[in-house]
Amino acid sequence: MKMLLPAFIRFEGRRIFGSFQNQILFILLLISSVYFVFSGIWEYRSMDRQRHDFQQFERNKIQLYIDYSQYGGYGFRVFFQPNPISVFFNNSSIIDSITSNIDTMEIINVQRSYKGKNLFSPAGFLRDFAGVIFYFGSLIMLTMGASVLVSRAHLRLLLSRYPFRRIFAYALLSRLLILNLTFLLLQLGVWLIPRLRHLRFNHSENAHFLLFTLFSLLFLNFFFLLGTAIAALARLRRPLFPFLFVVWFVLLFVLPEIERMRLTASAAAIPANDKVNIRKMQNMIELEKRVREALASDEETTAGNAADRRMRAFHFMSRSYEANLDWENDLNSRVRRVIDHHERASALFPTLYYPFLAGELSGGGYRGYLDFMHYIIRIQDDFMRFYMRKRYRSTDRTVQSFVTRDENIFRGRSHLPPSYARALGLLMILSILLLLVGARALAVVRRR
Amino acid sequence: MIILDDISCHWTTISIENLTIEIAGGQIQALLCADSGFFNLLMRLFSGSLALEGGVITIDGLRGGVMPAEANVACLERIVDAGDFDADVQVDHWLSFIRNLLQVPEERLLEMLIKFSFPREWRRKRLKDLETEQFRLLYAALQCARPCRNWIIHDFCRGVEKALERKINRIWMQKRDQGEALLYLTNDLFYASEIADRIGFIKHGQLVFTLPAEELKEMDFQKLHRQFLG
Questions:
Q1: Taking a C-beta distance cutoff of 8 angstroms, is the pair A330, A377 a contact?
Q2: Reported ipTM
Q3: Which residues 20-49 of A have a C-beta within 8 angstroms of B?
């Protein structure tokens, strides 16, 4: 009896890895995983090189400005630099290869350049390691789960000596053990690749990758149990693959698309960027007009000296800037509400949450975007103060740069969404439900 | 020894009503019935997936309202094809797993493979590469090698080649001679008269009569067939 589980493990190992078809599948999985991690590393390094060029360009640009009003008008750009862990999720990011311009025009523009070689940079969730596990891994596990108990004849043969529960548990456990170990080794292997390429992760990034591994394994087990439940409900009839494929397609493509459409609809309530920007510009122009009028009347009445006039202008501009800042913060809080709602909805089903989690862990997800926006607003605030001080108070002969160190570089941080534990719990509950459905349906099959 | 004492049970529209039979060690008893649903129900009872509504099953002294889990009994159903299994494994690996599961001693299996003329080189093939008859040889050898004293067999030989059927029949005879009890469920009157010592006729879930196989040979087969199996 004790020898039964090892016998199951040996047999399942041979079934899984002895089949030529499965060998091809696992080799493809391995090759694509390694390829996408290398591609992620290459992309990360290329972004790092772009950062150097970017900083060099920004340094050179400052020397061309004649005065502070020109500097204020053109401003400087902030570069979004992904964090090293994004090598596994480089195409899961929502924001990728973006910059933002900081100037006194009060318009926060976040943009992605499609000029030159950027036009050809790949995009899409399928093109990173997380995507390989999501699409390829889930399909493999679905088919593996569907073939646990093979056929009624096989089930009858297995049940000729042992009770159903024991056979079902051993068959499931042995297969799950082998497949989980395989995927765990794969994840460990790909985690080592960046280290071998001298790319270091900090403790938090390592912990996030570990939590991603845990979620992805449970995600794969969910698909395995789904396959078993489908096969059991179909009473182990064959061929089952076309039906499995339809289920897989609906869960991985249709369901996320429906959520994306819902997200787009809920985001419609957020005012358009241009509307906010125009409102801010109007406010700015209005106040500037009033400043000029006030200064003109000062000159006419010859009240106050030049320094006083500059101070009054400074206060006017500051007030205008604070009003604009409030609008920008209001826009961000609306965006945050939509993101929070999207996160709550995604946590309900694993195929919605997996891409969300990958995006957040990449540092380029929704929280990464909010972080970036907060940074932009903060740095714009600092720049405005710098600009006001320099324009209205300073007597510099040459334009001094606001950027003294790396202020124009924003380093994306990997985020673990607060909904992680809830999504993990729901995933486990769904998996247990599938296990019960599968066991119950198979118990009926064996009686027929 | 297999004793069914006044057993009753039903599943959907099929029922067994007050069935009483006793198969002693060293005996092959055949039950003939036109309705294969009756046999499926009986197999479900013997495999322990269904409980009796009345009566008792006794196997070598072990009694119960359901099939006793510790009972030394093998339930054999019709020989299946390789396609019914996950055929992408080597025969040896498949055999080793199933042998382990059914607790068949290796020597006994090897002996049975020799008896069924299953060559050693075929064991290195993949299950899916075996031809239908080759797989049937293997399956029959594996099932017959099970270390059991009591056998419930449901149309095991249906559809197999005559040569394989003869080999299997010889094994049944050997088992009987070794004192094992065999209950054969079929609707083939000729096959039953060939292998069984006693034959029982079932109609509408009830045992109508039983008689020794020698007596059956003197009876009108056509009439019997019309009356009970038509």
A1: no
A2: 0.77
A3: 20-22
